[in-house]
Amino acid sequence: YHRQHTEEMRLSKFNQTEIKAMLGSYTKVLFVRDPFHRLIATFLQGMGMSPSFSSFIQEVLDSGMHNGSVAWKPLVSLCRPCLIQYDYVLKFGFLRQELGHLLRQAGLPAGSLLPELTDTQVQSTYRWLSEQLFSELSAQQKKQLSHFYRWDLAAFPFSSSFLSD
What is the recorded membrane topology of this protein (predicted)? Predict the structure, then answer.
């Protein structure tokens, strides 16, 4: 897009004509991750001040949709997949395969640019960790989390998510 802008510029700062021109001129890529895995990563990175995972989840639920951190807000509220026609949606856990395809589509040499990703190890580690941390939650917290992330679970293929039950 011809207009100079900085990283701090948000799409909402532009008028409708500029937004349409920009979105039409870029390849739009969206990276998605199971919301429960996002919560685990946020908790492990110490972004919640809670001593336990269960109390951290309660903080998330209490903060609600509008006051919550970007780290755990539902993706649908952040990336607007119903409004923006993304060219690619890449799912965390399949990054090596999907990034390789994306790079080839862009005409770039996929093999030499990709870091060594161990998707299988990441998936099995998160599965084990998810089971452990999910077992700490009350039935009500599980139900509330599923409701909190209902639009993410409907929009993206997280079939093996603990929250999709």
Answer: Single-pass type II membrane protein
Where residue 46 falls (left for φ over 0; alpha for ψ -120 to 50; beta otherwise) is left
Task: Spell out the SS3 assignment of the chain.
Answer: CCCCCCCCCCHHHCCHHHHHHHHHHCCCEEEECCHHHHHHHHHHCCCCCCCCHHHHHHHHHHHHHHHCCCCCCCHHHHHCCCCCCCCEEEECCCHHHHHHHHHHHCCCCHHHHCCCCCHHHHHHHHHHHHHHHHCCCCHHHHHHHHHHCHHHHHHCCCCCCHHHC
Residue 131 corresponds to which tokens in the numbers above?
A: 């089971």
Q: Which residues of 86-117 are buried (b: 16+ CB within 10 A; e: fewer)?
A: eeebbbbbebbebbbebbeeeeeeeeeeeeee
Is-above-0.90 flag for pTM? no
CA-closest candidate to residue 158, choices 66, 60, 75: 75
For residues 66, 91, 99, 42, the Cα torsion angle rounded to the nearest 10 degrees is: 50
For the chain (165 residues), the mean pLDDT of every run of 10, in chain order, is 56 84 85 90 83 93 85 87 82 72 77 60 76 94 94 85 81
Q: How far apart are CA 146 and CA 161, in angstroms?
A: 10
